[in-house]
Amino acid sequence: MVSLFEVIREQVDLVTIADRHLDPVRSGSSLKCRCPYPDHEDNNPSFYLYPDSRFFCYGCRRHGDVVDLWALVKGLRPGLEAALDLAQEYSIDLPKTSPEARERAEQRREVEAEYLRQAEEHHEALSLHPHVVEWWDGRGFDEGLRKTFLLGVIDDGAHAVIPYWSRGRVHGLIRRKLEKEPPDDKYLLPRKEKFPLGYRPLFVPSAVKGGMFLVEGYVDALALAALGYGVAAVGGTYPNQGELGEFKRLPGQIYVLPDANEEGREAARRWIKHLYPKARLCPPNYEKEIIE
Amino acid sequence: MIKDVADLFAMEGEGARQILEELRGEAQDALALSISEAPPSSNTLGQYRYFKAEQLPLLMRLEDPAERRAALEDIAIAQSLKRLV
Q: What percent of chain B has pLDDT over 70?
């Protein structure tokens, strides 16, 4: 069941609200402006708006989504009050939900906010573990990208850590082994009951838009998001029921980019059959020569 | 060997974009892929079984009858199965 917060996030662009109230300017793939929080005197713009519909202030460390921004600019209580007001402003039909369901949705937001706080801590901890910084650099994720995606380190430097991004919210933390140790998987995920939704959602570290790529791995997805593409990752070869439902809500055509191995190809073929006619399979020919 | 997008990005950085655009341009849907992998036209029974198992379920997913008809004709022409149409 999609919560009212998710419906609003899908239908109201953070940038629309920012353009109306904050006068942001472009900064790479993001927008930035002075922090609008009244208790933060921000002379050097440090309030960033990211393509996956979240904001983060590098000065006062506050963060949030379109509902939080609406609460801020309209002086409303964050959460349900701001969500209902925003839905009314943009004539959004919200799903009929019980008061209990709305309360659960608010509680989920609190859990997501706590995961984001933890992700920030793990990102800050990178300064203590240069070998993990080197590992991220080696994967193409420089300081700017590490900051954008809050990539970090965990377990006293034993693992890299990736916030489980899903449409601008953090749903958990993914441990990434620095070296693959067969036969284990390279990712260590939280148990499904630890996810705010009660299942592992699609990993979506980018804006949701038409023509998205679909991949297996979380670092694959981060790489595509870093290049400015819309992307979702399954985190394996078998999507769960929740992920299958989310596939159908993704707008437009989906382009599947499989791993270049037998298991990856087989999985991708299953996905495009399941998602026909919405999905198309790209050949995993990653060693094409770049035409100069 | 570059085995996935993460490897491609690690090696090429921004240059990966050009390869990704080319791969996206070559993408095929499940029906087009099934046509390219159909048994040879000399194997009539194999073609019929393949159509029933692999292609008919895909056709049934097309909601627009005109689109379904066009896809069926594509299959018939590509696989020399004109009697099916």
A: 95
